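retry 2 of 3: previous attempt timed out while embedding adenosine-5'-diphosphate. Reduced batch size to 1 and resubmitted. Inputs unchanged:
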Amino acid sequence: MALSEQQLLDALRPVTDPEIQMSIVDLGMVRGLRVKRGRVAATIALTVAGCPMREEVTRRVRTALMAVAGVKEVDVELTVMTPDELEAVRRRVAGAGAPAAWGQAGADGGHGHTHGPGGHQPLGHEQGRANPFGPRSRTRVIGVGSGKGGVGKSSVTVNLAVSLARAGHDVGILDADVYGFSIPGMLGVDEPPTVQDLKMVPPEAYGVRCISMGFFIEEQQPVIWRGPMLHKALEQFMVDVDWGDPEFLLVDMPPGTGDVALSMAQYLPTSELYVVTTPQPAAKRVAQRTAYMAKKLNLPIRGVIENMSWMSGPDGGRQYLFGEGGGAHLAGEIGVPLLAQIPLDVDLRVGGDVGRPISATNPDSESARAFAGLASAIVSKGRARVFRPELTVR
Ligand code: ADP
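retry 2 succeeded.
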């Protein structure tokens, strides 16, 4: 049977752009597909010239096309989008099916299904979908990012939130770390949100409300599908969740930046970023990438948080297991303060594992005091003063 262009396009649909994490077909990156006697020539338009991910894009396209029965050879030619095409991508990424997110997420992904409150008519589609985190909102949106996973970003987010709540602030967490939705577990929340008056009401623990994509996807859902689903869900998490006008909304961002940073820059004009790193120089390099991306998106980075800085012995002596100075050096390079150094603490890890954050259960411990210090440093910094025109949420 002759291969059709449609077959090849269908095979490419699940292929995502490694940075934007949306289908390259939906993004309009597939410029041309020609097939002759099992030999496919694909032209793919990248969003930026000299894209660092070009090899990865090529590899993904080739793998997807080679998997189609009858394809013997694949040639991938890369080109670059025009400014107009790029603008179309930007609009697409910003609005990605947002108004009908729950209804589309499962169907688009093609795998699994969401069990969010909906799947039929999008919540509040017709009216009242104002973005509560617009430029006049009182909420400070605090993005917590890192260059790579495992540096303790989620632990920092949870304990910072609990410390802010203990200091009398009204706090929510939006768990957007697509690689592992760890916030509900760390907060000890296992109930999904309830629905009231067509809005999702986030569950609350230790004075912190939280919404996680983890509530709505199957655990076995492959990460490759999560990116696009999350992106669509993010806007809905802003407009269809009854956040109740918190003073702080902490966003646990996926490591390595990408689309979540883009959504934040567009939808959350009051966003400010904090970068978590460990003390060794290698971690610093990856955190630098986050910093670079934030600069490109005009998201202000306001501070560095060093985690796993040392281990305190019973005699008060410190052991620097992961080296020293990574946080201070990174902060110096970005030109922002090093706001906290959080020690290694077994009780902190155990607290995360069992859903009892150390900042709530043992506020006098060394690590909980470091989180309390971080919270007050962030409060006293005040809002970021960056004007970014808000994107209208339909
Ligand atoms: P990330 O969100 O960056 O992937 P996590 O917050 O999930 O990282 O942390 C990874 C692991 O390290 C978790 O088991 C967590 O409990 C542990 N951890 C994080 N920070 C500390 C710390 N300061 N002391 C001890 N364990 C920590």
